[in-house]
Design goal:
Largest sheet of chain A: none
Number of helices of chain B: 13
Order of helices and strands of chain B: HEEHEHEEHHEHHHEHEEEHEEEHHHE
Structural class of chain B: alpha/beta
Shape of chain A: globular
Number of helices of chain A: 12
Shape of chain B: globular
Distance between the termini of chain B: 64 Å
Largest interface: A-B, 42 and 33 residues
Oligomer: heterodimer
Radius of gyration of chain A: 19 Å
Helix content of chain B: 25-40%
Strand content of chain A: under 5%
Amino acid sequence: MKKISSFEYAVTLATVFLGSYILANGFIAENGQSSPLMSMFLCALLVPCLFLYLKAFRYATLFDFKNKKGEKIILWLYVLFFVFLAAYNVNTMASFIKTYILPQTPKYLFVLLFTLLCAFMASGEGKGVLKLAAVFFLIGAVSEIVSTFMLREKFMWDTVLTFREGNNLSAWRNVLSGTLMLSGEIVAVNAFVSFNEKKRKKALWLGCAVGAFFVLLLIFRSVAALGNTSKIFTWPTFEALRMVDSRNNLSRIETTSAFVILSIVIFKVGLFFASAAEGIKKLCPNVKNTLFLFAISVLVFSLGCPDFLSGEALLSSTMKWGALVTLPFVLIFPIYFCLKKRK
Amino acid sequence: MKKVTLCIMVFLVLPLCGCFGAEDINDTAIVMGVGFDSGEGEYYKSIVQTVVPGALSDGGGKTYSNFEGDGKSIGESILNSSLKCGKYMNMSHTSALLINEKIAEKGVNEIFDYFMRDKEFHSTITVAVSEESAGKILDCESKIEKVPASNIISLGRRFRENPVGEEINVFDFVSKSLEKNSAIMVPIVKSAGDDISVSANAVFKDGKMVAKISNNEARGILWLKNKIEKADITAQMEGATFDVRIEKSRTKLTLSEDEEIYFTADIDTDVSIKRDDKGVLNAWGEEKVLAKISDTIKSEILTSLHKMQEMGLDVYSFEEKISRKYPDKTNNETFKNLKVYVNVNSKLRD
């Protein structure tokens, strides 16, 4: 079995954060100009969650807790949760590509290709996916820094860091949802990693800190460029990129950025695939790898194709209900694992 | 090897999907500019300008084609113009939007809503109002620009040298429309022989053109908006006129509250004397001449400000700035009664 180094673990976490385009869009569309400030609270709230994971997964990975019947049910729920996360990301990204880049292509084709690609990524040794993180992180980080640099002329500095938008209750609900959704993605990485080494703890903090920086940068640059219009777009992070137009030069770079966004989200979905596959492998050791990857792919494809809601409504309801859906997986069950280890 | 294969596969996802429903380049018309005139009754008349790539490359023949279409709505009129084209009109390169004054007076919200929602259009499209029909402006065969729509796109370049208006795009327009009580200034263009010129500036409020201001008044506004890079002004001293070139200018606006809320504009300019055939500089000395230049600039600013305050058109976004800092201290009369102190400091550049 391949071993995950601390560096790979840190880079994977940072890449997962870097791929938070969907979350960032929902967050900005709901919070508008106050998003940069609220996203700082989001990152601050992640800290206690990370402490919890350090305790919960101190000696064991997520799918090592399978001795009791109740625990098995919880782990099956986790498998479903990862499949759902993968399907949600695939569905949203396919809608995004169809809306902005290739409007003539039917959505199911994107979903099919994404699903096949992610299944291929997760095939064989599941941990292999994590070993790819450095490539995706490098591409994503460079792209984000370059596009922020090119957008700098459009920044309206006086429109960021304002508290005046929206009502406080919904703003805090969005912060909570955002924190829990990001935490959910971190849990997926813990399907492979336990923290019984000191270096791993450092890697967790480092990966999350670097990742949080990129999330903040993404939200900040989008709001700074879009100003008071942040709330009227479904995909504000991408709309900001569409504004790159340095004196009529270097415009329309968003198509290139779409490739990068897509590749990072595909990496993330590949990771969820691999986590779900790892879970099934540990829960049913006798079942063939290809069989459960096929089952996951069918589920993701079926959930990824339909348009349940419009893009705007989907992102909005994710922010509204995200906390409720992810709460057991990122807080309640990890607390249970934590208490169990103490006993 | 697996990593390389995987990376190639990831990057092939989009190009592979792109073959589905693809439009052949020969069957595609690249749109550069769109204009709107008022048609009969409530109808819109759209003029869609496409480039003729063959003429652009070999330098022979007309480099553009204009297609007109009527419709009850913006979308319908554009669709009807595409019927005449016979090709798929690719809107993603549209860079100019021209709106006839009559439509502007009726209201432009429908146009901007359409342009913001349609994902083929970019929000960086330059906007202008046309005094004459938009079709006529989009038919001005400039000697410099290959396609008439480029005349509109080059407005920003013109304003950098001669700031008689502000380059504004679809995004700016929508963004300003969302500001509290703000008005928006859009250049008005008219044909001038083969070329176009900026004749005045339209002021929009609540999606309608409500006033027209002269180019000089527009420049007075731009000083306070820190949008003057270079400018030429003529100052007068005891009957003798002299020409001054503003080489560089920076405006710093400060919002303060004493007994009431007020703005202070500190303007630093670097100037050079371009014409002094009456020997003003020698006769009065540098200090007095610079003071005169500062006074001239100040008077230009205050004339525009008072006119805009009289009309209640906040093109400066003052009220928005106040509401950001003092959310409860704005009302409908805030801009009209606002005090703005202007300090101009001119420096002679060697």
